[in-house]
Write a structure and sequence with these properties.
23 strands, 336 residues, five-stranded mixed β-sheet
Length: 336
């Protein structure tokens, strides 16, 4: 840990203690696991925008998993061992283009249930800090990212079969009065973007929104039956407004045992406080398991993978956006 990082961490801890906070348990080893071979990112380089991970098995090692980088059209199989990630083959998710250029799915979340992986597009306005994108390209990019892709993983080498894509979640969001006003708005304006996905009971898909944050402190999760999204009709859904803290939305969701773990973080792009919560997936009650306060505030946790219970809590793997190959880092938090 650098001296500057230590100072920032101490200042944050002292401020919370002075305010009467009792911090939930959190232990950071500080050591990222190595990645064998290469997690692929844009233009075939090492991934720098890892945004999600999920595994076919809920526990044990080695574990077959899938990782996504939000700047590419593919996902990549990995094997998670206790202390290392081994990168494997890739699977193409979409083929959308604009004027001959490949458009990214902007994949922000991945889940596994019922023998299938599910990869969630952001459904949000594309990054356009300098305002160079035309209205036509913005529309094309939003369309490319407004998809959920699912497939079966077969074979020991991690090949994909039965690839299906659906844009139906966008129709359901449009039908929801709480969310419709934020569609196609820029993230910096509290615009709509999805960054987490989990499957509950093999029947219901939970989409976690980074933005909008409602009333300043309520993050949104949308619940939709899988058979409504794939091959169904109608817009039946349920909205959960979860108290994850001021200005914090969902950065990832992960199914764990009978509930859901939530990685929460700032809706805006700058530095901010991240935390992990436990949620039953059925009410609007959440319980904080850890403030991820020992991480440098400049780091951006984007992926959450439950590893195993320990004698003192729960060990999870955190993956970071804007760091090479996600810098997968194990931490121990309070158990749900």
């Amino acid at each position: 840990m650098t001296f500057a990082r230590m100072n920032r961490t101490c200042a944050l801890l002292l401020g919370l203690v002075a305010a009467g906070w009792m911090l939930p348990a959190f232990s950071d080893s500080g050591d990222a696991w190595p990645v064998k071979h290469k997690l692929l990112g844009k233009d075939g380089g090492k991934a720098k925008d890892v945004s999600g991970i999920a595994c076919a098995a809920a526990q044990g090692f080695p574990r077959s998993c899938l990782v996504i980088d939000d700047n590419v059209q593919d996902a990549q199989f990995v094997t998670v061992t206790d202390g290392e990630l081994v990168a494997g083959s890739t699977v193409n998710l979409i083929g959308d283009k604009f004027e001959g250029e490949a458009l990214e799915l902007d994949g922000e979340g991945v889940a596994f249930a019922g023998g299938r992986y599910y990869v969630m597009g952001s459904h949000g306005h594309p990054r356009d800090k300098k305002g160079k994108l035309s209205a036509e390209e913005i529309k094309a990019r939003i369309s490319a990212s407004s998809q959920i892709v699912r497939f079966r993983a077969t074979g020991e080498d991690g090949t994909a079969s039965e690839i299906e894509r659906t844009p139906r979640l966008r129709d359901i969001i449009t039908a929801e009065p709480l969310l419709a006003p934020f569609m196609d708005q820029r993230l910096e304006n509290n615009g709509l973007t999805i960054e987490g996905v989990a499957i509950k009971d093999d029947l219901v898909l939970l989409a976690g929104f980074r933005g909008p944050v409602l009333d300043g402190n309520r993050a949104v999760v949308l619940s939709v039956r899988i058979d409504t999204l794939f091959g169904g009709s109608g817009t039946t859904h349920q909205v959960f407004r979860l108290p994850l803290g001021d200005g914090r939305g969902v950065r990832d969701l992960a199914a764990f045992e009978s509930g859901i773990l939530i990685l929460a973080g700032p809706v805006e792009n700058g530095p901010g406080a991240y935390a992990v919560y436990a949620w039953d997936g059925e009410s609007e009650n959440v319980r904080m398991l850890a403030e991820l306060s020992s991480f440098d505030p400049e780091r951006k946790p984007e992926g959450l993978l439950p590893l195993d219970r320990t004698p003192s809590g729960l060990r999870v793997l955190i993956l970071f956006d804007s760091e090479k190959e996600g810098a997968p880092t194990p931490v121990e938090i309070e158990a749900p």
